[in-house]
Amino acid sequence: MTPVPYRVADRRQESADTVTLTLAPAAHALPPFRPGQFAMLYAFGVGEAPLSVSGISGNLLHHTVRAVGKVSEALCRAEPGNWIGVRGPYGTAWPTPPAGDDVLVVAGGIGLAPLRPVIVESLARSGRLSVLVGYREPGEQLFPAELPLWRRRAQVLVTVDRPTPGWQGPVGLVTALLDTADCRTDRCTAFLCGPEPMMRATVGELLRRGVPAERIVLSLERNMHCGTGWCGHCQLGPLLLCRDGPVVDWARAGEPLSVSER
Amino acid sequence: MNAPAPLAEIDESGLAALFDALVRRGRTVVGPTVKDDAIVLAELGSAAELPHGWGVETEPGGYRLRPRTDRAAFAHSAGPQSWKTFLHPPRARLWQADRASDGTVTVREDDAPAPRYAFLGVRPCDLRAIAVQDRVLTAGAYRDPVYGRRRDGVFLIVVECTEPGGVCFCTSMGTGPGLPEGSAFDLALTETAGPGGLSYLIRAGSPEGSELLAELPARPTDGVRARAAVAGAAGRMGREVDASDLRALMAGTMTAERWNQVADRCLTCGNCTMVCPTCFCTTTEETTDLTGDHAERWRRWDSCFDLDFSHLHGVGPVRSSARSRYRQWLTHKLGTWYDQFGSSGCVGCGRCIAWCPVGIDITEEVTALRAESGAAGAR
Q1: Beta strand A55-57 with A60-66: parallel, antiparallel or unpaired?
Q2: Quick check: B305 pLDDT over 70?
Q3: Confidence class of residue B1 from pLDDT cuts 50, 70 and 90?
Q4: Measured between CB atoms, does A57 come within 8 Å of chain B?
Q5: Rounded distance, CA B187 to CA B21, Å?
Q6: Which own/partner pairs from B65-71 qualify as long-range (CB within 8 Å, at least 24 positions apart)?
Q7: B372 pLDDT above the threshold of 80
Q8: Fewer CB near the last or first residue (10 Å), C or N of chain A?
Q9: Same domain, A77 and A188
């Protein structure tokens, strides 16, 4: 269960503290990843961190990393050509929405990263696509280069908690955007990733609007050391999130997530 | 039809012969021995190192050696260690990585072969604990190589329990004191002490066990005395608990008042998780040498009572209160373990009771939670 050697093929600075790395296998590629699954990325001499894929193109893996700890800081510093160890693919994938269903994506901050492949796949589907993103500040916005492409086909609404001079968009919680979301609540699959309070609030609004719990899918986060179900850190009640998650529908996640400090 | 095989027994010299036969086969024999005022598990040089003539007294927050009036070697209940010390070691190196001058990193898995262990004196409760860890660490999608290498080919010599301790409750959990039907083992012994010295009812549970048994100076026995000793043990459990439908009971306790009461006593020291024979949680450490070009990844036991255990960036500990951490431990052990691994995580060995510095008693907590749940249901 050792990391497989990959090389940084490309590095794109998304925002002040967030970088998207494109990783190419140095020799043999890992088995194919599916959107929603995660890898354990190993920075030599620093350690490992679990990171969902933010894109998959052939053998190449894309990971969007926010520098929040020692390992993610080291990963964000990686330059093209640098060695990165990769284990995976681990965990569950985003489900494919039923044909003809609308897709609603609700993200908070870096939570947009694991949802990026859902958006990219949904651009090619029939049915409506609505993307709602909340950031703390405008400077945190991710994938700026791709937004025009997304907007050609989808509704993309961005809100911020703390506007900076020049911000023209909405201010406030992402849940406030739900009223203007272009999707039919009776024929919609909702994909969520972000801080838990944001996801709880969004789920509450979606349930109230009649979206069934099975059609509300979340990518959840817990402390993780192995990715393989052995270390015990990623428990959320009955779930081991490295194995039963990170992608879990509200029908399964609702009960454990409704208990504080679970 | 074959006639049932006659029962066999060996005496103390037969036990020594068994030990020597294991050593001749290249086995590293691990068993109980007296060290530092406790009966610990350690690599043994001979059967003479077994804790002959020693018993133990246990109570919530207490464990003491007690001399016996006979020479029994296995008339003691669980000590501070369990077999996980040898199968799932407290520290293990997972891999070493070396960085060359061109930046290329070579990662080598630590795959040195494990000793060929023989475990002598595995209690039925602890045999179940091994089976529980087998499911956690080897029966999922990924097989833990550290545990797997050590577990493969272990020769298991069970000794049925005839002397339960004050904190034991294996009968409640259905794991002892006798060997339950369907258990996997190589040899099973039942020790009795009489005027003629020690005798051991001995049965084989595997081809290798039968082969070894055939080499021992065994004589036929009716096994009555051994059976009676085990049956007597079942009636002398220090504790008992209503273990019916624990999964549902635990699931309904999330807002129980009892967690506040236990949190007032719990020091969140994690002793219970260290001595528990099924607790398996680990954390990882990355170390580098002074050149910075050699890194090692180590794994060590961790505890859900540690604040860092549930740390998330931007959140801090998910479980910051003692209440939530004790609740996590108990509801996992007795409840969500079923969801995750298909069985209870508790085998009734009582270690968590004896080694809790403030004497928190898992059986008392379950009883209190059941009473609170019943009272809530009745309202």
Answers
A1: antiparallel
A2: yes
A3: very low
A4: no
A5: 13
A6: B65/B34, B65/B37, B65/B38, B65/B39, B70/B193, B70/B198, B71/B12, B71/B193, B71/B197, B71/B198
A7: yes
A8: N
A9: no
Same domain, A9 and A107: no
Same domain, B197 and B64: yes
At B115-156, the pLDDT tens digits run 999 999 999 999 999 999 999 999 999 999 999 999 999 999
Residues of chain A with pLDDT under 50: none
Average pLDDT over all residues of chain B: 96
pLDDT-derived band at B7, boundaries 50, 70, 90:
very high
Q: Which residue of A has its CA nearest to B248?
A: A238
Domain residue limits at B73 = 8-234
Most A CBs within 10 Å: which of B110, B288, B300, B312, as the mutation test of the A interface? Answer: B312
Q: Are residues A130 and A183 in the same domain?
A: yes
Q: What is the CATH number of the domain that holds A51?
A: 2.40.30.10
CA atoms in the 13 A half-sphere facing the CB of B378:
6
Least CB–CB distance from A223: residue in B97, B295, B311: B311
- ipTM greater than 0.90: yes
Among residues B170, B202, B234, which one ends one of the domains? B234
Q: What is the DSSP string of A68-133?
A: -SHHHHHHHH--TT-EEEEEEEES--PPPPPTT-EEEEEEEGGGHHHHHHHHHHHTTSSS-EEEEE
Domain check: are A159 and A192 in the same one? yes
List A42's β-bridge partners, or say none. A48, A85
Among all chains, which residue has been given the structure tokens 């911000």?
A167
Q: Are residues B252 and B229 in the same domain?
A: no
pTM for this structure?
0.96
Chain B contact set for A5 (CB, 8 A): 104-105, 107
Beta bridge partners of B286: B297
For residue A221, give the nearest of B311, B341, B335, B331 by alpha carbon. Answer: B311
Contact A229 B313 (CB under 8 A): no
Q: What is the pLDDT of residue B173?
A: 97
Same-domain pairing of B141 and B258: no
Question: Residues of B with CB below 8 A from A221's CB?
Answer: 312
Report pLDDT for B160. 98
Q: Encode pLDDT of B306-322 as tens digits.
A: 999 999 999 999 999 99
Between chains, do B137 and A230 touch, taking CB under 8 Å as contact?
yes
B214 and B268 co-located in one domain: no
Cβ pair A45:B292 closer than 8 A? yes
Indicate the pLDDT class of residue B5, thresholds 50, 70 and 90: low
In a domain, B102, yes or no: yes
Domain edge (last residue) among B200, B234, B268: B234
Q: Could A68 and B324 be called an inter-chain contact, meaning their C-beta atoms sit closer than 8 Å?
A: no
CB–CB of A228 and B107 under 8 A?
A: no
Which of A68, A195, A225 shows the shortest C-beta gap to B283?
A225
Do B176 and B304 have their domain in common?
A: no
Q: Contact A228/B311, CB-based, under 8 Å?
A: no
Asked whether residue B81 is assigned to any structural domain, the reply reads yes
Contacting residues of B for A69, CB less than 8 Å apart: 313
pLDDT computed for residue B165 by the predictor? 96
Which residue among B136, B141, B286 sits closest to A47, beta carbon to beta carbon?
B286
DSSP label at A164?
-
Residue A95 belongs to a domain: no
| pLDDT band at residue B375 using 50, 70 and 90 as cut-offs | confident
